[in-house]
Amino acid sequence: MDRNFQRLLQTLQLIPTRGKISTSTLQERLENHGYDVSARTVQRDLESLTIPFGLECDNRNKPYGWYWAKENKRITVPGMDASQALSLRLLQIYLIDLLPESTVLELRPYFEEASNKLNQHYGGTAVQRWLDKVAIVPASQPLLPPPVKRAVHDAVTQGLLSERQLDIQYTSPGGKQAKSSTVHPLGLVQHGVVQYLVATFLQYDDPRLLPLHRIKSATLLDAPSTTPPGFTLKSFIAQGAFGFGTQSGNAKPIRLVAVFGPQSGAHLLESPLSTDQAVQELSDGRLRFTATVPHTERLIWWLLSFGPFVKVEKPLALQREVASRLRDGAAQYGHPSGAIPEPGLRVPR
Questions:
Q1: How far apart are the C-alpha atoms of 187 and 82, rounded to whole Å?
Q2: Domain containing 17 — which CATH number?
Q3: pLDDT digits (tens, 9 = 90+) for 103-129
Q4: For the chain, how many structural domains are there in total?
Q5: CA gap 258, 287 in Å, rounded
Q6: Contact (Cβ atoms closer than 8 angstroms) between residue 111 and residue 16
Q7: Which among 24, 258, 273, 329 would be 20 to 30 A from 292, CA to CA?
Q8: Residues 345, 342: Cα–Cα separation, whole Å
């Protein structure tokens, strides 16, 4: 197929159903699709498509915006089938926050078409009812997501997509101590209800985690971003980056030995802690698990969540830490004055 024809077809598909799009934005999005074109070429393409396809240009203010005339419908090639419509609806429901804003804008007409297709062509059928048969449930206590500014999400995702630096203003927990810095975006991670930007600060190579809701402003720069040698988001996460207290992603692996009650440990038989997990059934029915895991605060929280139904045997330092926190927690309910000590303070024993 002629490359120019493919580019023209892609240009038509990038024109939004609602709203307008500028020539410079079209050029950027065409480049994201692999077309190396100048702004002048895009302008000529648009002018050539105006009459045969009914495009119009709003030249009242700069930058000029291109859009479909009201009597014309957006080009979609090929027609959407049931599987595609269902996949797009699931993408829109569950994964839209992990997409670049520019991609969401491009997909919006497809989302609308998918919704219409399911309602008009498959309404009352098993295909449409599939949406009522699947769900993603949080594994921990459900929380409401903190609000993220749309402009921040847009700049961050575009920075990741175009591999460019960002100037950000961010705050510490509680909205205090606002700081400004230039960062190199490396990844975007959804952890529970919170989205994190993984980035390095200018002139530093250690990746950090920045909750998106604490970023008050973000400006996309022209300067290209750089990635630390050997960095991959997958390995960064696997090394314990989201273990609460290990932002640099270098949690030390330990050989965990813990005894669980027969019911509390049963799920680990189906969902192991690690690929080298070993299990031993004790005479009283309890289960002793041995596995190599990152030593993180998240591991400690997880062990504490089982309360009296787990006993850490090794490492001894972890055993002492878990035991100490359990004693502190129990002491709060038995404090003679009825007052709960301040966080971080040791309870007399």
A1: 32
A2: 1.10.10
A3: 888 788 888 888 888 888 888 888 888
A4: 4
A5: 8
A6: no
A7: 329
A8: 6
